[in-house]
Write a structure and sequence with these properties.
The protein has about 200 residues and is of the alpha/beta class. It has a single domain (about 1-200), classed as Rossmann fold. Helix content is about 40%, strand content about 20%. The protein has five helices and seven strands; from the N terminus they run αββαβαβαβαββ. α4 links the parallel β4 and β5. The protein is globular and about 45 Å long. The two termini are about 25 Å apart.
Length: about 200
Amino acid sequence: LTQKLLTEGFQVIAVTRSGEVPDLSAENLTVLKGDISNEKSIKAVVGMLEEKGIKLDYLINNAGVGVDLSDEIPTAELMKISFDTNTIGTVLFTEALLPFINKGGHIVFLSTAMALIRNVGPSAPAYRMSKAALNVYAVMLSERLASEDIRVTPLHPGWVQTRMGGDTAPVTIADSVNGIHKAILENKETGKFWNVDLAATEAY
């Protein structure tokens, strides 16, 4: 997705834990080291934006962990890991960056259809619950920002051939990227759950 946006001429600021985006460099790419589960790290990102006077048209929250995908019994440790990144860190990072988002902007959260009530199964308790909480926050945020003409979209990127999804997943990275790209640039609704597999919004 970063490569696609860079190729299209967007100025991209990528925040990664390592401070690097492997095999990717461009004049219109700025890479910052940051961990959204760490409040000091979030403040450092905010400080850079303030210092450079940067405003954002799009905020794409891609951070997430799936540490109990094959488990059925929730544990305190895995619940904490999941909520710290998938929910708490993402919420606090988003709140910190709200003052920098331009009118007409778009906030996107990579979530999962596994967190929708009708899709709930016995496995991945921490993952499902932390992403379900994120979906609720996205709807609440969409109500708060409606008067400022800032859209909010939680989305399901598909079951993708990534390290988390595995090689047998049915959706290629390229197809998922194209679907996310469509949601970012073309979806005019706010507070609705976007399913890349359907290329449309669907009910929670």
